[in-house]
Write a structure and sequence with these properties.
The structure is a homodimer of 231-residue chains. The first copy, chain A, has 231 residues and is of the alpha+beta class. Chain A has helices spanning 13-23, 52-60, 68-73, 89-100, 136-141, 143-161, 173-183, 188-195, 199-212, 218-227, and strands spanning 28-34, 45-48, 80-81, 106-113, 119-126. In chain A, strands 2-1-5-4-3 form a five-stranded antiparallel sheet. In chain A, strand 4 and strand 5 form a beta hairpin. In chain A, helix 7 (173-183) packs across helix 9 and helix 8 (188-195) packs across helix 9 (199-212). Chain A starts with 12 loop residues before the first helix and ends with a helix. The interface between A and B is medium-sized, with 17 and 17 residues. Chain B binds a DNA duplex (30 and 30 nucleotides) through helix 7 and helix 9.
Chain lengths: 231, 231
DNA sequence: AAGAACCCCCCTCATTTGGGGGGATTTCGA
DNA sequence: TCGAAATCCCCCCAAATGAGGGGGGTTCTT
């Protein structure tokens, strides 16, 4: 679905950002990726071609907490034009500062949320909107393409962060099977009968699953696995 | 948010359906509520003022699996006009049959999904669209009202189904607290320290929570509670 | 041909949990 | 003011679990 011409495979996310900016003929493209956990809002993974001065100013001032684009992205499903932003005072100041640092007047963003709640916001920024006064007509026609693009760059960023895999513990099929039955209230002896294994084997699988999930109890392992969508 | 004039409190869902139809000046109003679990698609809770013949025909032929309105409602967030339907052959036949049974030409629906995935679809059906060729302009102006209405009737239907409460096991605050810590890998002795209770007490709470959740193990209880959104 | 990643089985031991009781007090709505 | 529900506490015992070990085997990739 995404433009193959971009050939995003086998390149870094930073490189992808540059190619996307060139392909869509905008000045700046930015990816924010918020991983789950306590640092969800604190330390997003960011790739952008904004001027260095703006990037460092943004990071040093913890603007990720202020940025109205990111705030709005939490509320809107699908691509949206920045004209939809209704800034508070604090955010108005942020936007003025941004302009001073070379950020352009118009933009749009598209958000992607994966199955375990990790969020990407891919933002496009340019001097003038392609599509009239706002980007809306433009992004309406490109809607599916943009959604697909956001999805792909999300996966690319995850692969980069987690060194090729998706950052989830790699449970073996048997481990998953045993965990599912455990979540269903079955004891290892029952699971052994269900799966036709020795109960020692089942306990072994559950132990390995527990260790992979960095858990001290089956209850915690089940909780983690289900919140990670593994079972 | 919803029109207070409807005074939907303290009336049955069936009565609410009639009042809604009168208030919005449409011929027919239908509520489909899909509860979770294995019978999610099989046996929805339905309240409608469609003619009896159509209702029985619909139910007997298991049309809930065919109905293009319900299918589309899975894909669209917010109210949508039935003109957005792009029927397959099977669905075209369904729609012809519907018309023969007195179903009108135009309509719109709004879906609500609650925190544990139970879905309501509230559908409006009339001879002609209020708002021009389609309902779209009309439902755009009524958007928030319709979303709120869908939410309220969803709760009403749940209350009717589950006899006043929302169908979720009623865990006490302490039970929830203990379950959360358990999901976090804490043993009852640790939880007792954290909460400043006797470990006997904590075990008592966890036992009660387990029983309320109809579970045989803490792992199962945690799994259920988290899938029900209770922790 | 070696290593990795599964898959399968076995053992012991201390601790935790499930399942069953029993209470006491407070709070809150009917 | 009665009862129900929540909160807190205690007991026992059998079974399950966690935490450590120890073996094998296949299959696939490198």
């Amino acid at each position: 679905m995404e433009p193959d011409i971009l050939n995003l495979d086998s390149c870094t996310v930073q490189e992808a950002v540059l190619r996307i900016a060139r392909f869509y003929e905008v000045d700046f493209v930015t990816l924010h990726l918020f991983r789950g956990g306590e640092d969800a809002q604190n330390k997003p993974y960011v790739r952008t071609n904004y001027p260095d001065a703006w990037v460092s100013h943004y990071l040093l001032n913890d603007y990720v907490r202020v940025d109205p684009v990111l705030e709005l992205a939490e509320q809107i499903a699908g691509p949206f034009c920045w004209t939809k932003i209704n800034p508070r005072q604090e955010q108005r100041e942020f936007m003025e500062t941004a302009i001073k640092h070379g950020v352009r007047q118009t933009g749009f963003s598209v958000r992607h949320v994966d199955s375990i709640g990790r969020r990407s916001v891919l933002s496009f920024n340019a001097q003038t909107a392609k599509g009239g006064d706002t980007w809306q007509p433009y992004i309406d026609t490109k809607r599916k393409e943009l959604i697909s693009l956001a999805y792909h760059i999300h996966l690319m960023a995850l692969a980069e962060i987690y060194d090729g895999n998706d950052g989830l513990p790699q449970l073996s099929p048997r481990e998953i099977e045993c965990l599912k039955w455990t979540a269903d209230g079955k004891a290892h002896t029952e699971i052994a009968i269900i799966l036709g294994l020795s109960d020692h084997t089942v306990r072994g699988y559950l132990k390995d699953a527990r260790l992979k999930l960095d858990s001290v109890s089956l209850a915690q392992a089940v909780s983690k696995a289900s919140s990670l969508g593994l079972i």
